[in-house]
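Tokens for chain A. Residues wanted.
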């Protein structure tokens, strides 16, 4: 007995509707993930820039002091950006391992230590930048920077 043309057409329409629904779901998911990633990147950059500008305002830097700091600021930012990228990649690696593995393992332990390695380099870079700034600031602003640094280190994140 031949298939009912109405039933066959209905099945094709339902199949097409299902495929369209799946495509829409994929597109929306990709869009949401991309938006979330972009907003996170912008927020991270914006927070760092705002903090940096806040510090310069708090110290009341003169044009001459700003220029002296600008001489090494670009290198600091480039190195910091590279380390932050490495840090984020290592966080992603650990996140993936946590999803894939049900138990604490040597791979998890190694991923944690790789994060600590980059975190230590970031801390070292920040302290070197602190001393670079101290070398170009007058005594009164050195005291202010020292006070701000000690206060920041006294507050856990």
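Reply:
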């Amino acid at each position: 007995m031949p298939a009912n043309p109405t039933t066959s057409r209905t099945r094709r329409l339902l199949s097409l509707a299902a495929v369209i629904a799946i495509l829409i779901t994929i597109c929306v998911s990709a869009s949401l993930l991309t938006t979330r990633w972009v907003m996170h990147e912008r927020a991270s950059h914006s927070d760092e820039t705002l903090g940096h500008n806040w510090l310069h305002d708090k110290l009341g830097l003169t044009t001459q002091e700003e220029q002296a700091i600008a001489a090494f600021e670009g290198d600091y930012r480039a190195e910091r950006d590279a380390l932050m990228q490495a840090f984020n990649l290592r966080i992603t690696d650990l996140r993936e391992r946590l999803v894939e593995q049900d138990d604490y393992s040597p791979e998890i332990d190694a991923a944690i230590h790789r994060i600590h390695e980059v975190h230590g380099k970031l801390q070292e870079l920040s302290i070197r930048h602190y001393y670079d700034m101290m070398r170009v600031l007058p005594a009164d602003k050195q005291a202010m920077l020292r006070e701000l640094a000690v206060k920041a280190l006294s507050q856990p994140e």
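The helical segments are 5-59, 63-100, 106-136, 139-154. The domain at 60-154 is CATH 1.20.120.1490 (Four Helix Bundle (Hemerythrin (Met), subunit A)).
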